[in-house]
Amino acid sequence: MTPVTIIGPVMLIALMFGLVTGSFLNVCILRLPDGTFFRKARSHCPACDALIPWYLNIPILGFVVLRGRARCCGAKISWQYPLVEFVTALLFVYVAMRFPFIDVGGGLEFARQGEAGMPRPILLNQPEAWRFLHALVFCCVLLVASVIDLKLLIIPDVLSLGLIVTAPIVVALHPDLGWRSSLGGVLLGGGILYIVAWAYWFLRHEVGMGFGDVKLLAGIGGWLGYEAIFPVILIASVSGSLVGIGVMIWTRKFHGKTALPFGPFLAFGAVVDLLFSQEIRELWISNGL
Length: 289
Ligand SMILES: [Zn+2]
Hints:
Layout: H1 3-31, H2 61-66, H3 80-98, E1 102-104, H4 108-113, E2 122-124, H5 126-152, H6 157-173, H7 179-204, H8 211-224, H9 229-251, H10 263-286
Antiparallel strand pairs: 1-2
């Protein structure tokens, strides 16, 4: 098999796998908050409880065929379903490109330029495979946490504490994450937001920052290391403020409180830091900053 012919299939598998996983993540988003995750095996219509046939559950295609309305009762199907599937697929393809864990001969770049038709060994790049898996699981957990936080303004402990508890496993398998960095990330991430939450309550006597956010940033620190905490907070604060201003203008509510969850912005910051920190640092250096 020539190198060029393997890149296409890998991306295609990542795309298909991403769509199917996105469909599973939709189930997690629906069932994790109320603890019904292990109860029903088949999917039912949330509006009328009718059983949904498998062919209407095919990612994105089902939504397109039904034109956004349930076949059983005509209820509107939430945009959440195709959107989560699409975003998951996009993330999977990017993560597969970012961490090319399948080596063809002397690496993909060399192989692309080298003479075609030459048989080359296809090898598994093990460190890259761990980075790939780490990024995949991390993005999935954060996507589920974000959508649940957007819908219900909570982050289930299974996800945030789950990241903290599994951090030692990441340390054991990940080629770049040391235990000091991971432990420091949990303490720094959780500590900073804990102080912010406490200070907000002390000054205004109301809950401004939920403990869900504290636990989530601690988990992010455990999986990315303490080096990621400040970039994540910076990206989350800036993007959160921009979206907050946008929502204010859109709804024309310039006074009073808009309940905008912070979790999705922390997740956004974490995924940006995970996937683009190298580019950001290079940009930084190349501009002489
Ligand atoms: Zn229905």
